[in-house]
Write a structure and sequence with these properties.
This protein is of the alpha/beta class and about 650 residues long. The chain is built from 18 helices and 30 strands.
C-alpha cells in the first residue's frame, strides 16, 4: 500500500508532493482546451485553465504537450513544447493555473505509432514494426541512435515547461502511446538496451526521468500508466509500478485505463473502472498514487482514498462543471452539473473543447455557447416577472434553471408524467443511463429552488395569460419513415418506452438504421440483447452500422456486441412484410427475406405542435420544437432563452 499517508484521508485533506502543498486530494487530469493553432496556445487558452483551477482542484495537468517533431499531427491542435515560441502560451497557462490556486503540471507525450487517427507530416515511429489495429500499416522502427535524441526531447521540453512556470511534468506512458509501447510485450520486440517489453520500457522511462532531474532537479515528475484494457496486462502494470521507483526519481503514478479507442469511457461505464482494484494498485507501489477515470461523485472519490489512493483525478467532471470540486468540499454535490459520458462534444474540438451539458464552454470571445432561440412574438413586460416554461426536456429544464437561480418565479408544464423529454427515453436504453444523471440534476436543482413542475399538463392560452414570458420547449417526436409504415414497424422511441417487456415473445428482431448511424437504432439493438431476443438483424442503409456515434463510443459498442450473434447488413432497405417475413432490397436490386416478429425503425424526429400562446406575452421557442438536433443545442438554447428574459 502507498506509504504517502498514515491515516485514511478524505477529499479535503491537504497533500504534499516534492515540497508543494496541494490544498486537497482532487486533481484535474490531462486534457486540452483545443484553443491551439499550429501547436501554439491562442487567446482564450489561459482563460480556460483559470476556470478549471479556480473551481477548487489542487493540481491541474494540462494535457498532450508534444515533445518531438515526428509526433506532430497536421491539424496543429496539440501544443508543441519543442518549439521555443510555445513558451509564451505555456507561461500564460501556468500563470493562470497558479492564479486559480492549483499546482500546474504539463503532460509530455510522444504518440509513437498512435497518431490519433489524424494525418501527420512524418512516418509514425515506434520501438518495433508492430502494427496497431487502428492503423493499416506498421510504423517505422526507432533506431538506436534516435533513442538518446528522444530522451533529450523529453528533457528539453520538461525544462522549457518548468521555465515557463509549471511546477513539473507528467510523462504519458498510457493509452498505447510511445512510452507504453516500449513497456508492452507485444509492441516492443527490441533486443537492445530498451527492449524487449516491460524491462526495456522501464529503462527508457528511468533514463528520461534521470535526464530531467539533471536540468530541473526540483520539478515534480509523474508518470501516467494504463492499468486495464491497454497494451499491458494488469499483472504487468503492477510489476512496472513495483520496479519504476528502483531506477527513477518519480513523484507520483497516475493510473488510468484503456487504449486509444477505449480510454474515454462512454455511458456504458457506470462507475470508475479502477475503483475495484485501488487496493491492489496501492499495494504495488510505495509512490503516491493518483487514480483517475470516470470519478464523478464525492462518494467515489472518498472510497478510492479510503482504499489507498492518495489523489483522485477528474477530467470530464470538471469539463462539465469546473466548480465540482468546490461543491464537493462544501457539501453541495446536488449542485454539480454532471458529466453524462456522452462523448458528443468533448472529443470533437470544433472549434475548441466543448461540452454538451455545459453551455458556458464556448469559443472566444463568446461568454457562452452561441445559440439563438426563435422569438415568436414580442410584448411589453407588465412588471410581474413571472415566466412559464412549456416542455420539460433538456431545453425547458435549462431555461427554468437559469431563471430560478436568479429568483424569478417559474412554472414548468410537461405534457407527460415525467421530466426529461427525449433524453428520458434515451436513458431507458441499456448502457445509456448517463442521461438519467442529467435529468436527476435538473429535477433536484429545480426542486431545491422551489420551481413548480406541473406534469401531465398542456396549458391553455388562458392559463398562460398570467405570465410575462412564455418559453416553448415542447420538443419533437420520432415518426416512422415511409418504409417504416410499409413494413408495419414501430419507432425506436416506442420500443424504448415499452422496454424489455415490450419484446416479450419476440424471437426475431429487425432494427432498421436511419442512414445516419446515430444512437436510436443502436439503443434498440442493445434493448433486444437485454431482452434476450434470440435473433437480431440490423439493416444499415448507409452501409455502416453506428457510423454516426462518437468514435470511442463506437469502439466500446462493438466490444459489447462481440459474440452476441447480431447480424449486420449494409445497403439494405425494407420494402415489404408478410406476417413474420420481411423483404429487403439492396442498392443493386437483390432481394432478401428475413424473419421478423418485430421491426423497429429509426425514423425522423419532427417538431411537436406548439400550444396556443397568449397575445400579451413575449414568446420564445427553443430546442427540438424549432428543429430536432442534439442535447447540446437544447441546453444552450435553454440557457440563452433564460438569459434573454433576465436581460443578460
Amino acid at each position: 500500500m502507498s506509504q504517502a499517508h498514515t491515516q485514511v484521508p478524505d477529499l479535503a485533506t491537504p497533500f504534499t508532493v516534492r515540497g508543494r502543498r496541494l490544498r486537497n486530494r482532487m486533481v484535474a487530469t490531462a486534457h486540452a482546451s483545443g484553443l491551439i493553432s499550429d501547436g501554439l496556445a491562442q487567446d482564450g487558452d489561459a482563460d480556460y485553465w483559470t476556470r478549471v483551477a479556480g473551481g477548487g482542484v489542487a493540481m491541474v495537468v494540462s494535457g498532450a504537450t508534444i515533445v518531438s517533431a515526428e509526433s506532430t499531427v497536421r491539424t496543429g491542435n496539440l501544443v508543441v513544447a519543442y518549439r521555443g515560441e510555445a513558451k509564451y502560451g505555456l507561461a500564460k497557462r501556468a500563470q493562470a493555473i497558479r492564479a486559480g490556486g492549483a499546482v500546474p503540471i504539463s503532460q509530455l507525450i510522444h504518440l509513437g505509432r498512435e497518431t490519433l487517427g489524424a494525418e501527420s507530416w512524418y512516418a509514425p515511429a515506434a520501438p518495433s514494426a508492430v502494427r496497431t489495429s487502428r492503423s493499416p500499416s506498421p510504423p517505422r522502427v526507432l533506431t538506436g541512435k534516435e533513442i538518446p535524441r528522444l530522451i533529450d526531447d523529453f528533457q528539453r521540453c520538461a525544462a522549457s515547461c518548468v521555465e515557463a512556470g509549471f511546477e513539473g511534468v507528467e510523462l504519458h506512458a498510457a493509452h498505447g502511446y510511445l512510452l507504453e509501447q516500449f513497456l508492452s510485450r507485444d509492441a516492443n520486440e527490441r533486443h537492445d538496451r530498451y527492449g524487449p517489453g516491460p524491462l526495456g520500457g522501464i529503462k527508457l522511462i528511468s533514463d528520461i526521468v534521470q535526464s530531467i532531474r539533471e536540468t530541473t532537479p526540483n520539478a515534480i515528475v509523474g508518470v501516467r500508466l494504463s492499468a486495464i484494457e491497454s497494451l499491458l496486462s494488469f499483472e504487468d502494470v503492477c510489476r512496472v509500478m513495483e520496479q519504476l521507483p528502483a531506477g527513477a526519481d518519480i513523484d507520483y503514478l497516475n493510473m488510468a485505463v484503456g487504449d486509444r479507442g477505449r480510454y474515454v469511457a462512454d455511458m456504458a461505464t457506470s462507475s470508475p473502472p479502477l475503483l475495484p482494484v485501488v487496493e491492489q494498485l496501492a499495494d504495488a507501489t510505495a509512490l503516491p498514487l493518483l487514480v483517475s477515470q470516470s470519478f464523478r461523485t464525492d462518494e467515489d472519490i472518498n472510497t478510492a482514498l479510503s482504499q489507498g489512493a492518495d489523489l483522485v483525478g477528474m477530467c470530464r467532471t470538471v469539463i462539465a462543471d469546473p466548480e465540482a470540486p468546490k461543491k464537493f468540499l462544501a457539501g453541495r454535490a446536488r449542485e454539480v452539473r454532471p458529466c453524462t459520458n456522452c462523448n458528443e462534444d468533448c472529443r470533437l474540438f470544433t472549434p475548441c473543447l466543448l461540452c454538451s451539458v455545459n453551455p458556458h464552454l464556448a469559443p472566444p470571445p463568446h461568454r457562452r455557447r452561441p445559440a439563438a432561440p426563435l422569438l415568436l412574438q414580442t410584448a411589453r413586460p407588465r412588471g410581474q416577472g413571472s415566466v412559464s416554461v412549456v416542455g420539460g426536456g433538456p431545453a425547458g429544464l435549462e431555461a427554468a434553471l437559469v431563471l430560478a437561480e436568479e429568483g424569478r418565479p417559474v412554472v414548468l408544464y410537461e405534457e407527460t408524467d415525467r421530466l426529461g423529454g427525449q433524453i428520458a427515453t434515451a436513458g431507458d436504453a441499456p448502457h445509456r443511463m448517463g442521461w438519467r444523471r442529467l435529468i436527476g440534476y435538473y429535477t433536484g436543482r429545480l426542486d431545491d429552488l422551489g420551481v413548480s413542475a406541473r406534469l401531465g399538463r398542456v396549458p391553455s392560452a388562458q392559463e398562460l395569460e398570467e405570465f410575462d414570458d412564455v418559453i416553448v420547449a415542447v420538443g419533437a417526436e420520432e415518426t416512422l419513415s415511409e418504409y417504416g409504415n410499409e413494413v408495419d414497424a414501430v419507432t425506436c422511441s416506442a420500443a424504448l418506452e415499452k422496454g424489455a417487456e415490450g419484446m416479450a415473445g419476440v424471437d426475431e428482431l429487425v432494427v432498421v438504421d436511419d442512414g445516419f448511424g446515430w444512437w436510436p437504432a443502436v439503443s434498440a439493438v442493445e434493448l433486444g440483447i437485454a431482452a434476450g431476443v434470440r435473433g437480431i438483424t440490423v439493416l444499415a442503409p448507409s452501409g455502416a452500422f453506428a457510423a454516426g456515434i462518437p468514435a470511442e463510443s463506437r469502439t466500446q459498442l462493438l466490444h459489447r456486441l462481440h459474440g452476441t450473434g447480431v447480424a449486420i447488413h449494409g445497403f439494405l432497405l425494407p420494402i415489404g412484410r408478410n406476417g413474420r417475413e420481411l423483404t429487403a432490397r439492396s442498392l443493386t436490386g437483390v432481394e432478401t427475406t428475413l424473419g421478423a416478429d418485430l421491426v423497429v425503425v429509426a425514423g425522423p424526429r419532427v417538431p411537436r405542435k406548439i400550444p396556443p400562446v397568449p397575445e400579451g406575452a413575449r414568446v420564445q421557442m427553443i430546442g427540438d420544437c424549432v428543429s430536432a438536433r442534439k442535447v447540446a443545442h437544447a441546453v444552450s438554447e435553454g440557457r440563452e432563452a433564460g438569459c434573454r428574459v433576465l436581460g443578460a
